[in-house]
Amino acid sequence: MSAVSVRIGWICLAAVSAGILGFGIVVALVPPAGDALLYRTDALATAGLGLFGGLIAVLPFRRRERWAWCALWFYPVFWLAHLVFGLPPGKDHVHQIVFIALSVIGLAVPAREFFRPEPEGHHALRPG
Fold first, then answer.
1. Residue 21 lies in a domain
2. Which domain holds residue 66?
3. How many domains does the chain have?
4. Between the chain's N and C termini, which has fewer beta carbons within 10 Å?
5. Helical H segments across the chain, by residue range
6. Is 59 part of a structural domain of the chain?
């Protein structure tokens, strides 16, 4: 079950990352009417958030590094803030609820894997 729970987790988190990255790229290429430079700047920051979150989900999270699990709790907080404060993108809020659910599932399902005691003789910070 442990490998399956981590797989569920990183796939859910990678999907959230891909959505954020994709949104950032689209807005950077085709900004809405208004201050295009500001929109492109925000879009590049958004794309960076999606890219870095995706890299964390695919590399250290899959290796069960506890710091990655902790850092990715930013996703549900980020999307919850968007929902509560009515922040963009969009006014439908469906994507925000989906991303909140995916990120919480992605973090909750494999949570035990990140807090298991290390096997005797295994030290993560010392070479083998």
1. yes
2. 2-114
3. 1
4. C
5. 2-29, 36-58, 66-71, 74-84, 94-108
6. yes
Q: 15-45 pLDDT, tens per residue?
A: 999 999 999 999 999 998 889 999 999 999 9
- Which two three-digit tokens encode residue 83? 């929902």
Measure the CA–CA gap between 82 and 93, rounded to whole angstroms: 9
Residue 21, Cβ density class (10 Å: 0-12 exposed, 13-18 middle, ≥19 buried): buried
Cis peptide bond upstream of 89, omega within 30:
yes
Query: Rounded distance, CA 74 to CA 26, Å?
Result: 22
Rounded distance between C-alpha atoms, residue 27 and residue 128, angstroms: 46
Q: Residue 127: is the preceding peptide bond cis (ω within 30°)? A: no
Q: Is residue 126 part of a domain?
A: no
Within-domain flag for 121? no
